[in-house]
Specification:
335 residues, alpha+beta, 60s Ribosomal Protein L30, Chain: A, Phosphoribosyl-aminoimidazole Synthetase, Chain A, domain 2
Length: 335
């Protein structure tokens, strides 16, 4: 491309904008539906579908284990998967700040294309806007996703009952710390990588092999603690978790102790909390363990009748403590 940085005219609807779409976005993301460049994508559906949208403003744009492009794809895919749907089609809306280097944009689009290919999803429509310097932080991304629900049984918090088991699919706290370390240029040798990953290949096969899963949610902003509290409040039951059962890597634990951060409140972008019937918990755990993303899955607690709408943790010291919902985002702009 002749121009090495984004100009306001790239968002003006003229030749520069069409060139950017044709030479970069279509080149990386092309498929028969997108190539029509229509105002709306026409998609045939007869089955029940899941529909979600999300926006991504992570700072910095790249971090160990990913970047804003990978995050946008995986985050939207995972929201669909948590509803029991196989992701199929996504939209891509880019808000670019004047002055953004086109090489940086191309790298982000490469990440988007790679993750979409890995997950077997297609970008079929989108939008491009350019704003003045200082009106955005280089690039903001919005993605919308549509997926086909794979089971007739609806996953719902209303399905949750006392004695149900709670599973987390992997080690927690990695994404938030990876972003924090890069953002603040901390001189830490822990080499913590974000867990950012699409969960469709992990979860969808399990949904097809068993009806045991009652509800799922990904513990992103606010981390494990906040998501557990959301489940407790919505179900009108309590949750008891065991500290010793929560999978936390040695690196994450050490970094959190050094920074004074509770790993229970650190965001994740490639993990799921799954509520299953007690009798089926070990079976689900075994199915998850067959996939690399589920090799560290653990049963971390259970649903209880009382205390209602509360999360209690049995600590390694033999005591109990209340795990409350976070009152504020400890690490803003992590997604």
């Amino acid at each position: 491309m002749v121009n090495q940085k984004i100009l306001l005219s790239h968002g003006g609807g003229g030749r520069l904008m069409h060139g950017l779409i044709k030479d970069l976005l279509l080149k990386k993301l092309n498929n028969p539906i997108l190539s029509e460049l229509a105002d709306s994508a026409l998609i045939d559906y007869k089955d029940k579908i899941a529909f979600t949208t999300d926006s991504f403003v992570v700072n910095p744009l790249s971090f160990s284990g990913g970047d804003i492009g990978k995050l946008a794809v995986c985050g939207t895919i995972n929201d669909l998967v948590m509803s029991g749907a196989r992701p199929e089609y996504l939209s891509l809306a880019l808000i670019l700040e004047e002055g953004l280097e086109i090489k940086a944009l191309e790298k982000i689009v490469d990440s988007i294309a790679l993750e979409a290919k890995r997950a077997g999803v297609y970008f079929v429509t989108g939008d491009l806007k350019v704003v003045e310097r200082g009106a955005a932080d280089k690039i903001f991304i919005n993605t919308t996703g549509i997926g086909r629900v794979v089971k007739a049984k609806r996953l719902s918090v209303k399905n949750i009952k006392p004695d149900d088991s709670i599973i987390v699919t992997g080690e927690i706290g990695q994404h938030g710390l990876a972003v924090l370390v890069k953002r603040n240029e901390l001189d830490m040798e822990f080499n913590i990588k974000s867990d950012c990953a699409a969960l469709s290949d992990l979860i969808i096969p399990v949904l097809k092999q068993t009806d045991a899963i009652k509800f799922m949610r990904d513990p992103t902003r606010g981390g494990l603690a906040t998501t557990l509290n959301e489940i407790a409040q919505s179900s009108n039951y309590g949750i008891i978790i065991d500290e010793k059962s929560i999978p936390i890597s040695t690196k994450v634990r050490a970094a959190c102790e050094l920074l004074g951060i509770d790993p229970l409140y650190v965001a994740n972008e490639g993990r799921a909390l799954i509520v299953v019937g007690k009798s089926s918990a070990k079976k689900v755990l075994g199915l998850l363990g067959k996939h690399p993303l589920g090799k560290n899955a653990r049963i971390i607690g259970k649903v209880v009748k009382t205390p209602r709408k509360s999360v209690i943790m049995n600590t390694v010291l033999g005591t109990q403590r209340i795990v409350d919902m976070s009152s504020a985002e400890p690490l803003p702009r992590i997604c």
